[in-house]
């Protein structure tokens, strides 16, 4: 009996990259197995042999996104001499990376995933944790701002962190709807105008 395995020359990393882009563009439910096989240039037995299931493939694609696409944007928070500069750097990075560009779909896979009820619970849990990690990065940056006297001790760190995460998430949605970098910059500018008035500029 013949055993169906991976095709000769199967490049797992390239296949995962292709799956990530498709899931990012279409979402979990809308990306069919046929779509995935076509994008990954493999047949369904090879897909199952390499990744286990559609759900497992999606989870691995999210992890791939978090490890490769996310850091160049989210790590902008650590750049700049002040918390304000870090937050502004994050939003400005979003104005360049969130619009569709070449093979990269619009929006942010981690921010837009699993926001409705058709997603498997395991995916909802994982992407929720990713978003909480980004929120944690914001909180940490703002705490540093308070500790260094840039922000007053009375600053609502949680509220301000959630506000700027909401701005970034909103920018991701706007980008998915076709907003240009210039239009996203106007959102970033308005958001930074809401920075506590007694913080340093």
UniProtKB/TrEMBL annotation:
Native source species: Bradyrhizobium canariense
Classification lineage: Bacteria, Pseudomonadati, Pseudomonadota, Alphaproteobacteria, Hyphomicrobiales
Keyword Acyltransferase belongs to the record: no
Transmembrane parts of this sequence: none
One Pfam family this sequence matches: TetR_C_13
GO molecular function ontology, one term from the record: DNA binding
Keyword match Transmembrane: no
The protein's name in its UniProt record: Transcriptional regulator, TetR family
Residue stretches making up the HTH tetR-type domain: 9-69
Entries under Gene3D superfamilies matching the protein: Homeodomain-like, Tetracycline Repressor, domain 2
Matching PANTHER family: HTH-TYPE TRANSCRIPTIONAL REGULATOR YJDC, TRANSCRIPTIONAL REGULATORY PROTEIN
DNA-binding region, residue range(s): 32-51
Keywords linked to the UniProt accession: DNA-binding, Transcription, Transcription regulation
């Amino acid at each position: 009996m013949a055993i169906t395995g991976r095709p000769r020359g199967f490049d797992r990393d390239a296949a995962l990259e292709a799956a990530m882009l498709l899931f990012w563009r279409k979402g979990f439910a809308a990306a069919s197995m046929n779509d995935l096989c076509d994008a990954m240039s493999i047949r369904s037995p090879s897909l199952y042999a390499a990744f286990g299931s559609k759900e497992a493939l999606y989870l691995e694609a999210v992890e791939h996104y978090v490890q490769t696409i996310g850091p160049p944007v989210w790590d902008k928070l650590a750049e700049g001499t002040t918390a304000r500069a870090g937050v502004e750097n994050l939003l400005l990075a979003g104005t360049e990376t969130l619009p569709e560009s070449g093979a990269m779909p619009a929006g942010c896979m981690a921010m837009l995933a699993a926001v409705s009820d058709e997603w498997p619970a395991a995916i909802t849990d994982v992407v929720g944790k990713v978003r909480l990690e980004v929120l944690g990065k914001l909180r940490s940056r703002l705490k540093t701002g308070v500790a260094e006297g840039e922000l007053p001790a009375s600053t609502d760190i949680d509220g301000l962190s959630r506000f700027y995460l909401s701005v970034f998430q909103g920018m991701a949605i706007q980008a998915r709807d076709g907003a240009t970098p210039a239009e996203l910059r106007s959102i970033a500018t308005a958001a930074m105008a809401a920075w506590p008035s007694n913080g340093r500029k």
